[in-house]
């Protein structure tokens, strides 16, 4: 959907208040509203307030799919916030092309972002026509299976070491009254789960053939059929979850009501808030214990063009603060994500974060689908997998529809 059409649709129904009167107040919009996320955001706000400016929190309840249209509508409708969260990739591409977003190249050059941000693809995804338009704040990876020690103990089976063992343990979990796989009802969760199955079970080459090369033969071939079969297994295992939000599904794992959840490393924030210890109360399997690759997804902040000089200066201060070493450590330890700076000390990282750092150090990283696919194609994928996981659609039919979506990708 074009910006013009999206703005016309949203402007009539959405309006949010401007930031309050102080010249250096800066409204920051984001969709981080779970307990663990709120604790992480508080670290960003504290660091920014220490600059003499004031963070005005503009949290929007719901997922990114709910928040992004509101953010876009405000920017295109002449009511821009001071800064706004988007995921790494192409979500703000049209806003930049429309001349509505601030060029941060001066800040990036002054603070040598090209030398400190790792992997370099994160800054590349902020760069359009040679200019830098966003400040990356973290590396989030989707490719994790979180497992409840209490659930497997109750079911009388050992903790799985990979996806296949997890699937094999499902009957024992069900017999004990435990949902094997917690999966929230929002479309992005279903689509994300499928992508994790693709990269973790299908492997790096298949993932890149599908999303980077758009290889029609690979997309319709037997290796992809096996991934869709795994998605069918996941659909069966997730029956009975009956929650919507991802953090509600995570809470099922925390409380032993579910055996596991395929979710990004942001789930760690919820385990930490609940006082759970990695390696004792829960286990984490990067790459589902099969192929330990992670995608370099995550979050970045974009800054709409503002006419107010004081707020423009505050924007530069916030961009600088987000990449400050101390801010990077404090925020990411609570968020469960990895820092975008390669020169910070994360000695306090838990076992799961250390696994992620080790994978990053080995270079076993790939671009996320947000970096490889347009927002429109991502939405079509979400719609497909939302239908697949809530219906009896066959895996073969889902694969055919998926092939048509990718064939239309730009």
Task: Report a brief summary of the structure.
With 410 residues, this protein is α/β, with parallel strands linked by helices. It has 21 helices and 13 strands.
Which terms summarize this structure?
410 residues, alpha/beta, D-Maltodextrin-Binding Protein, domain 2, 2 domains, 5-stranded mixed β-sheet, 21 helices, globular, periplasm, transport, SBP, signal, Bact_solute-bd_prot1
Written overview of the protein:
By secondary structure, the protein is α/β, with parallel strands linked by helices. The chain has helices at residues 3-11, 35-49, 64-76, 93-97, 105-110, 113-116, 120-124, 149-155, 163-175, 187-202, 204-211, 216-219, 222-237, 246-254, 267-273, 309-322, 325-335, 351-362, 369-372, 375-389, 395-407, and strands at 25-30, 54-59, 83-87, 127-128, 131-132, 134-136, 144-148, 179-181, 258-262, 282-286, 294-295, 299-302, 365-366. The protein has two domains: 3-140 and 296-365, D-Maltodextrin-Binding Protein, domain 2, CATH 3.40.190; 144-295 and 373-407, D-Maltodextrin-Binding Protein, domain 2, CATH 3.40.190. It has 21 helices and 13 strands. The strands form four sheets. It has a five-stranded mixed β-sheet, sandwiched between helices. α10 (187-202) packs across α11 (204-211). It is globular, with a radius of gyration of 21 Å.
């Amino acid at each position: 959907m074009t910006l013009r059409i999206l703005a016309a649709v949203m402007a009539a129904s959405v309006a949010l208040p401007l930031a309050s009167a102080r010249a250096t107040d800066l409204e920051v919009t984001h969709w981080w509203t779970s307990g663990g996320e709120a604790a992480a955001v508080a670290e960003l706000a504290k660091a920014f307030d220490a600059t003499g400016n004031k963070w005005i929190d503009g949290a929007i309840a719901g997922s990114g799919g709910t928040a992004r249209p509101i953010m876009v509508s405000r920017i295109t409708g002449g009511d821009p916030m001071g800064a706004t969260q988007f995921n790494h990739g192409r979500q703000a591409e049209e806003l930049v092309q429309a001349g509505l977003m601030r060029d941060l190249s001066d800040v990036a050059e002054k603070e040598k972002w090209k030398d400190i941000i790792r992997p370099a693809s994160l800054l590349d995804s902020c760069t359009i026509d040679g200019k830098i338009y966003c400040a990356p704040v973290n590396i989030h990876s989707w490719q994790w299976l979180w497992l409840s020690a209490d659930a497997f103990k109750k079911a009388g089976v050992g903790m799985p070491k990979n996806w296949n063992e997890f699937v094999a343990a499902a009957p024992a979990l069900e017999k004990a009254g435990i949902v094997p796989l917690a999966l929230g009802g929002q479309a992005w969760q279903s689509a994300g789960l499928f992508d994790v199955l693709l990269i973790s079970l299908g492997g790096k080459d298949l993932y890149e053939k599908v999303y980077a090369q758009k290889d029609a033969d690979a997309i319709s071939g037997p290796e992809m059929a096996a991934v869709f079969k795994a998605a069918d297994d996941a659909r069966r295992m997730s029956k009975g979850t009956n929650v919507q939000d991802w953090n509600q599904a995570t809470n099922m794992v925390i409380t032993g009501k579910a055996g596991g959840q395929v979710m990004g490393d942001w789930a760690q924030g919820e385990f930490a808030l609940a006082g759970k210890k990695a390696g004792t109360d829960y286990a984490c399997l990067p790459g589902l214990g099969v192929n330990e690759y992670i995608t370099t997804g995550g979050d970045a902040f974009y800054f709409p063009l503002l006419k107010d000089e004081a707020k423009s200066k505050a924007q530069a201060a916030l961009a600088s603060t987000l990449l400050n070493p101390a801010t990077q450590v404090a925020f990411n330890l609570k968020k469960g994500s990895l820092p975008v700076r390669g020169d910070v000390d994360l000695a306090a990282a838990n076992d799961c974060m250390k696994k992620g750092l080790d994978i990053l150090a080995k270079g076993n990283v790939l671009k996320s689908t947000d970096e490889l696919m347009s927002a429109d194609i991502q939405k079509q994928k979400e719609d497909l997998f939302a239908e697949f996981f809530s219906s009896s659609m066959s895996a073969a039919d889902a694969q055919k529809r998926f092939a048509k979506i990718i064939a239309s990708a730009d």
